[in-house]
Write the structure tokens for this entry.
Amino acid sequence: MSALTPPRDIAIVGAGIAGIACALSLSRELTPLVPDLQITIYERHDILSTSGGAINLTPVAQRHLAQLGVLDELDRMGSEGGADVEAIELFSMRSGRPIGSIDFVDQKGNGFGGYKGRRVMRIVLSMAMMAVIERTPNVEVVFGKKVLGGEEINEKAVLHFSDGTEVISDLVVGCDGVHSAVRTRWVDPDSVSQYTGMSFLQATIPTKSLSSKIHFRSSALNVSRHGSLLTSFIDSDHEQIFAAAIVQFDEAELSNYRLDSGQDWASKDRIRRDLRNEMRERFAKSALPCIREMVDSKADWMLYPVYQVQPGSRWCMNRVILLGDAAHAMPPRDESAAYALDDAILFARILSRYYQEPLTEVFEAYERLRRETVESAFKESRRMWDRNRDMGFLESRLKEWMMPFQIRNRREKRESAWEFDATKVLLPTPTPSEDMVSLNSFLREEKV
Ligand SMILES: Cc1cc2nc3c(=O)[nH]c(=O)nc-3n(C[C@H](O)[C@H](O)[C@H](O)COP(=O)(O)OP(=O)(O)OC[C@H]3O[C@@H](n4cnc5c(N)ncnc54)[C@H](O)[C@@H]3O)c2cc1C
């Protein structure tokens, strides 16, 4: 195949948010141009993963999920489809008093560009995304296919799987998350994921199991000097609360708290008890009664260490590109999923606009559009993330005192970011590469 033939066989690695969104966007944008298009997603799990707890979707994430047809699927699921989040309220666990709120609605109660926030279980979001995939004719998902690496041979991209098989395609999109094999075994082996020093300790708690008053409307971040505890409803009937502590956790300790399917009953029981104790030590003295009740309950807390990918890593080669966390995992701050969706929509738009150009030019245009945005988001996430580390008494009092000002000062920037629409962004023009000038880019240069 010549380098200028549009990609027809596209392999996507990973059926997470980026992978599925990428398949849906590519199908929508490329099908009219490449009628025999075939997109295949390779996912290492045998079925959709039920782990990971709940996720907050910002107005931007909701807008993009609506454009992909996923929001309608979530809405069709009724109460399970998620809880509306009008604001994340902030409370001090020391005093029990409100500190401020991050509002997902304006003063009239309207969402930004029509969308508020939503907290939904990850598995529910995955099911809604899969429902859209099932009615998209040229997209197939193959489960139980773990990618070990890949290579470029004769203007094709080859994926190698753990079962000894391989697949040859015109283009590979690596959407395999923070520990991406496509990145570490192919595109940029030096860019290994790093532990952020912080972990999530999370559990789901039935609302009716709590007798004390729930102090938040839909979602709250309860801050203390021993980390923050996010508490949020995850269904529109408010029957379930997702609680996630964001805490400093030593890397050397992580293996002592990891639950594995192969462990014996006694080890699992010991880990559950230790995690409960960890929660009690940190938050049992909270002035908020329902927090005290949550940490005293028999909830099964699970540990999720949080990893990141240092900015500056390589994103692409000639026939392979990384999107989502595989390219730029950052400490989560309610917006990382939105970046994965933005990536998918923007990449599909650029590829379809310049589908007759060399892929290297398409990749270069995409990177020019995205690199600065995600790297500055990384810096912002890192700065906010550090606020959750363990602190001394005075430092934590200062943090609490500063928070209302910081929330207010960033309000305008935050709210204008929520108006972002990846389907309307002006696309850059590819710069012809030195060694591969397409007829189209040559003609374009001639006209100029
Ligand atoms: C604890 C925690 C809480 C978070 N909370 C939020 C939140 O509230 N809001 C928010 O916006 N973001 C949140 N994030 C971030 C968000 O989850 C990620 O940014 C988002 O999931 C990235 O999507 P992705 O598709 O790039 O990667 P992933 O969701 O990680 O998906 C990667 C997929 O690739 C598959 N895969 C991996 N390796 C291979 C392989 N070798 N072969 C084949 N398949 C493979 C995986 O099984 C998975 O299905 C949170 C992250 C963490 C860790």
Notes: Residues 435-448 have pLDDT under 50 and may be disordered. The chain has one domain: 9-194+308-441.
